[in-house]
Amino acid sequence: MKTITLTLKKFSSIALEFEELIPDTVYNWSKEDFENYQVPIGNTRFPLTNYFDIEVEGDAEGPEDVKMILDGDMSRVKYIGYRMTAGEIIVNGDADLQAGAEMIGGSLKINGNAESYVGREMRGGSIEVMGNVREYCGTSYIGEWRGMSGGVIKVHGNAGKQLADCMSGGEIYIGGSCDILAGIHMTKGYIEIGGDVTRWPGGQMKNGTIVIKGKLSSLLEGFENEGIFVDPDIEGKQLTGKYIKYKGDIGVNGKGSLWLNAEKNRNLL
Amino acid sequence: MAYEEPITDYDHIVENCTCAFCGSNCDDLDFLVKGNHVVGVRHACRLGASKIMEDEDQRLKVPMMRDENGELQEVDWDTALDAAAELIANSVRPLFYGWSETSIECMKKGLKLTEYVGAVIDNQATICHGPTVQAVQNVGYPLMTLGEVKNRADMVVYTGSNPMNAHPRHLARYSVFPRGWFRQRGRFDRTLVTWDPKFSDTAKMSDIWVPFEENGDYGFCNAIRAVLKGKELKEDVISGIPKQDIIDLTESMKNVEFGALFFGLGLTHTLSKQRNIDIAIQLVQDLNAYTKWVLLPMRGHFNVNGFNIYMAYEMGFPYGVDFCRGYPRYMIGETTTVDLLNRKEPDVFLVIAADPGAHFPGGANMHLANIPVIQIDIHWGPSTELADIVLPGTFIGVETAGTSYRMDSVPIHMKSAIDPPETCREDEWIVNELYERVKKIKEEAK
To answer: Closest approach of chain A CAs to the CA of B442, in angstroms?
Structure first.
């Protein structure tokens, strides 16, 4: 097991790009390799040692034996865990844009808030965010109709707008509330939102499942009521309580299912 | 409005000039020229005419740099260009913003400079029709040329835009009033519909006004799509519009011969942003199962569409293109101007043919006040107050010829009618000169 600890010592207002510092590339790096490494910042590269104290302990045979710990405010460190296939990254602070984007395997834990595009086009692995995430969590690249296709994202706080747009697989759990258009254009996958949702979940969804345990303020016209179910079993996940099931979005002949907690949404009964 | 005497005191007329104001790019203007000044403009709307004729008002004529007291002082071209090149060459996160009111020829030089220094290049789409571009990338672009609307359209819908105020000749020249091949009686052969929460000047002259509630556009379009698919609407009032009105409107939209939907920033900048456009495009796609429908964004500046087309053609991305790693990247929120400024990333800002001082949010402008700003423009404006180096350009379409793209992506050659002031330089020349000087500094440093 190899533990790599990077502790922030100088904050850069211009974002650092960390896509080269993933377990897949650094598993055989020594401390000297890190000290010689130049990190991309804007149109230039600067020594990593300008910004971080580096500690490397132990050895690794492959990326799966690597544990990277990023200590400090990483709110200007982009692409943490970008395209990683194995290993573990722990961020003790906030993370910047694109954390876990295009991730294939391994795990990423953020003990703080994360910016937009967490787990964009994720294919596997797991992301856990202890705080809030901003817009476009688990979405697709602009113009791409296949977003997140595998893996699990767990957010303990709230999620921003357009959660998981064009989602085509995988699972997302949001503990808090969620802003507009969760699961827009979704074709497959599972989204569970613990808190309230402002408007229009599942806009133009073709398939997949959205579960809302809190109150929904505004439902789209494209959803048809299919009745009330008690303690439903949805894709192998046992929910407790009464849920109203909707099918939609009719506008795109969608067969997606939207489950709303009946107790919290009595106005729709 | 007081009666104005026709202008008779002029030397000669330059015919078929193109207006350098809005995205309608009216190319039928006649400039009345006297002593190297445009004293009158025929055929243009008041907005276009006043921009062209009052060109000398607050015109930037000489290069300027801020002195140690923070005052702009006149300098010669070499000093200003060298100082600007020095700033660009030594910057880590340069951002070149603007371009929508200059020519494609100038953008070409700008892209060369951007690629060479590894900067971000962005245009006004980032604060106007950017969401449109994203939606088009997602679900397609059922567009037409404005000539088709003129000759064929029997229903014209404006939503989230007020062309009577913002694109005054749009209705007169392209969409509603002109007589077309299949619409011989002009206005009488067409139904004008406005979907807008406000009773705008366009709504006042429309046959049908649909006042959906603010931020209700997504729900409204979704309801029309549901009706088109044969679904019974369950709510009595949707987005502030009674159910029966939505059903009637959908029926009339199905029964036209050729419908055109024009949308503006009212649609791109309400709550669900690009998803409003996304669903509007899909609504148009659905309507095409019954009859011919098309859609077009009402672009603002005369060449804002040109930048998007040019960048998409050259680099594959329409705006907000980041070259900092040597190859083009495009990510909304990451490589777009306002987000970069809010995150306080850029360390040098070049603004050409744009006015961020007037248009950007306060937080973005606060960062602009803290970093060196180079301005290439023809008029003194709020951005000049933020600028540290001012380079006076020339007026495309009046003093300098160039290419621009109309809102329906038709390229138009804009001719020059008069000579530019002697102390000003063409935008294209300035940007090229910056490139040459930056290159010299970078090569000497090697």
So the answer is: 13
Those residues whose C-beta lies under 8 Å from the C-beta of residue B429, and which sit 6 or more positions away, are none
Per-residue pLDDT, B231: 87
> Does domain B130-297 match CATH 3.40.366.10?
no
Task: Kindly provide the ipTM of the predicted complex, given to two decimals.
Answer: 0.93
Closest partner residue to B219 among A135, A218, A250, by Cβ?
Answer: A218
Name the 3-class secondary structure at B364: helix
Residue B416, classed as helix, strand or coil, is: coil
Are A221 and B137 in contact (CB < 8 Å)? no
Instruction: State which residue of chain A sits closest to B140, comparing Cα positions.
Output: A143
Q: Find the Cα–Cα–Cα–Cα dihedral B301, B306, B307, B312, rounded to 10°.
A: 140
* Cβ separation A204–B279 shorter than 8 A: yes
What tokens were used for A247? Answer: 């099918």
- What pLDDT digit, counting tens, does each position of A117-163 carry? 999 999 999 999 999 999 999 999 988 889 999 999 999 999 999 99
Structure tokens at B126: 């980032």
CB contact under 8 A, A117 and B334: yes
Report yes or no: B375 and B355 within 8 Å, Cβ to Cβ: no
Q: What are phi and psi of B413, to 5 degrees?
A: -85, 125
Q: Can you give the pTM of this predicted structure?
A: 0.94
Is A178:A161 a contact under the CB 8 Å cutoff? no
Q: Which of B92, B137, B334 sits opposite A44 (nearest CB)?
A: B92
**Cross-chain CB nearest to B324 (options A43, A180, A250):** A43
Beta bridge partners of A44: A41
Domain segments of chain B: what residues? 12-53, 64-127+302-445, 130-297
Cα–Cα distance for residue pair B341/B114, rounded to 1 Å: 18
Domain boundaries, position A23: 2-268
> Are the C-beta atoms of B193 and B206 separated by less than 8 Å?
yes
Q: What is the mean pLDDT of residues A239-265?
A: 93
Q: For all residues of chain A together, what is the average pLDDT?
A: 94
With an 8 Å Cβ cutoff, is B271 touching chain A? yes
Look up residue A151 and give its amino acid. G
- Quote the pLDDT of residue B40: 92
Q: What integer pLDDT is reported at residue A247 of this predicted model?
A: 94
Instruction: Label residue B1 by pLDDT band (50, 70, 90).
Output: low
Task: Say if B366 is an interface residue toward chain A (CB within 8 Å).
Answer: no
The DSSP code for A128 is: E
pLDDT given at position B446: 84
Q: Do A40 and B325 touch (CB under 8 A)?
A: yes
| Reported confidence tier of residue A238, pLDDT bands at 50, 70, 90 | very high
pLDDT for position B287: 96
DSSP B213: P
Tally C-beta pairs within 8 A across A and B: 113
With a CB cutoff of 8 Å and minimum separation 6, the contacts of A73 are A8, A11, A93, A94
Q: How many angstroms separate the CA atoms of A229 and B117, rounded?
A: 61
What is the pLDDT, as a whole number, of residue B3?
80
Over residues B265-286, the pLDDT tens digits come to: 999 999 888 999 999 999 999 9
Sheet holding B258-263, edge to edge: B208-210, B191-195, B155-159, B258-263, B292-297
CB-CB under 8 Å, B223 with A221: yes
**How far, in Å, CA of A45 to CA of A42, rounded?**
8
The answer on pLDDT for A237 being more than 70 is yes
Q: How many domains does chain A have?
A: 1
- Assess A267–B contact: CB distance below 8 Å, yes or no: no
- B64-127+302-445: CATH topology is Rossmann fold (3.40.50)
